[in-house]
Amino acid sequence: MNIYVLLKSTFDTEEKIVVSNGTIQDEGAELIINPYDEYAVEEAIRVRDEHGGEVTIVTVGNDSSEKAIRTALAMGADKAVLINIEDDVEQIDQYTTAKVIAEYLKDKEADLILAGNVAIDNASGQVGPRVADLLGIPHITTITSLNIDGNVVSVIRDVEGDEEKIETTLPLLVTAQQGLNDPRYPSLPGIMKAKKKPLEELELDDLDLEEDDVLGKTKTIEVFSPPQKQAGKILSGDISDQVKELVSLLHNEAKVI
Amino acid sequence: MARKVLVLGEVKDCQLRGVSFEALAAAKAISEGGEIVGVLLGESVQSLANSLIHYGADRVVIVEDEKLSHYTPDGFSQALLAVVKEEEPEAIVLGHTSLGKDLAPKVASKLDCGLISDVIHIEVVGGNVVFTRPIYSGKAFEKKIVTDGLLFATIRPNNIASLSKDESRTGEVKSLSVDIKDLRTIIKEVVRKTSEGVDLSEAKVVVAGGRGVKSAEGFKPLEELAALLGGAVGASRGACDAGYCDYSLQIGQTGKVVTPDLYIACGISGAIQHLAGMSSSKVIVAINKDPEANIFKIADYGIVGDVFEVVPLLIEEFKKVKVNA
Asked: How many pairs of residues across A and B have Cβ atoms under 8 Å apart?
């Protein structure tokens, strides 16, 4: 089975986000595999181990993405491609990323493409469904279970806490929801092996694309930090009096109940 | 510049979702006086059309088909694209819900246009529609504009106030017949796991529990409090990892981002990942035994105490207020 994982490297969730001069400071920030993409990598490896084939990681990013890609290879993915378009495209958005990935995948005859349902940095959740549409294959988002039997695929999709049991066929693109699996930690031999696994680096030219083909349709004009919250009121006294005071404050001061 | 805006009315349990009314208000801001066209897709949705008009739609286009009885990306995208082709709008607004997140990128791809997801504020500045959205789960925000083509956005529930209901408004309701081709993903069964009632992402009140709640049993009083306030129960990752509740209740950088009017954090220490999912709530109450807990730094009101003692007292006190109200 020919399996691809769309992987983004993101800031570690522990990182504080500092805005200065209108951009997010990324110097020294710890980068990880986007947590939802980690489920996608794990699922891809499990599908390969059961059905045979190869897992290829596809990342649109830059040099700093390599660490996350090597981690995915250490988990067990077979090879990777890093597509760096930062020097070639002035305005990049999800439209751009999806077009670039779809162009790369269009002649790869992928059976199964997995991605995270959302990246924790930009949180648009657009790239997966867009890539599926550009490739002309169906997509199912936020899946918590995947079962492949021949050409028939049974999936459970999380819909705001409810479950849809869905049947479809390959080729297919799915996006992972939390609960799909428990991603493994890379083993030491895995880490050693990952260093030697193939990582192909591509630019826009290599995909026969021009900037105009993929130029973003939207643009960020400002980035800012949330307003600092005022320190709150810690109540004191007897617990039952505190509760009375709290309810009164919510009712009369905050007016939320 | 007046703009014609399409708004998809999302139907759940035979009712319009609150976010659809908010989407009409968003459309009004974008339209600058242009026409607002509500869209309803489903098997039998005609009866909801007037509701969209009461909340701001000038008229409504309906596509009814048994293949639309349940959401599928193929069915709904074909129907919505048919309406777009017929109406040729300058903008489209959907809710940033499970349906909107799944449908909007596919439709945007088909229309070869951009899409701004998860919008919390819309304003028109010098003729440009400016969309504000959280990034890094609310650790920062960005303002975006569309530089080419259709304006297309999904809006986050609970952030853009809906217009007030005006039952005197009337408008045309038109049916559009669409030949829905084969659906490639077939829904075999829907398993209802959430309780009837308020969806976590749309709830005005969220009562959330953390590790301090200690067990699945410990969530019972939180559920009672949430039900009393017409809200929903949420949880921290710690509580989900410990198996106290389902991952679908998780609030945080992984999990849901919520912005209710009132967030009551019970036994939640306030890890940075959790704060990212709830710190934009309008009023935050923290209840925790540890006075040093991080959650108190962002709480509007805090009680240092045992959840199991405080929550039942809160329930009693809220009941009194409700009786008096």
From this structure: 251
- Provide, as residue numbers in chain A, all residues whose Cβ is less than 8 Å from the Cβ of B194: 160-162
- Please say if the pLDDT value at position B46 is more than 70: yes
Q: Which of B117, B205, B249 sits opposite A126 (nearest CB)?
A: B117
- For every residue of chain A, DSSP letters joined together read -EEEEE--EEE-TT----EETTEE--TT--EEE-HHHHHHHHHHHHHHHHH--EEEEEEE--GGGHHHHHHHHHHT--EEEEE--TTT-SS--HHHHHHHHHHHHTTS--SEEEEES--TTT----HHHHHHHHHT--EEEEEEEEEEETTEEEEEEEETTEEEEEEEESSEEEEE-TTS--PPPPPHHHHHHHTTS-EEEE-GGGGT--HHHH--SEEEEEEEPPPPPPP-EE--S-HHHHHHHHHHIIIIIS---
Pull the structure tokens for residue B95: 């809710």
Residues 6 or more apart whose Cβ sits within 8 Å of residue B193 = A161, A162, A163, B246, B248
B86 pLDDT higher than 70: yes
At residue B161, the pLDDT reads 96
Query: Residue B325: pLDDT band by 50, 70, 90 thresholds?
Result: low
Select from A112, A89, A115, A122 the least CA-distant residue to A207.
Answer: A89
B255: pLDDT strictly greater than 90: no
Among A91, A126, A257, select the one facing B105 at the smallest CB separation. A126
Name the amino acid, one letter, at B80: L
Give the closest-approach CA distance of A196 to chain B in angstroms: 32
Instruction: Read off the pTM.
Output: 0.94
* CB-CB neighbours of A111 under 10 Å: 19
Distance from CA of B9 to the nearest CA of A (A): 18
Nearest-angstrom CA–CA distance, B72 and A125: 17
Q: Which of B98, B133, B201 to mutate to test the interface with A (most CBs of A within 10 A)?
A: B98
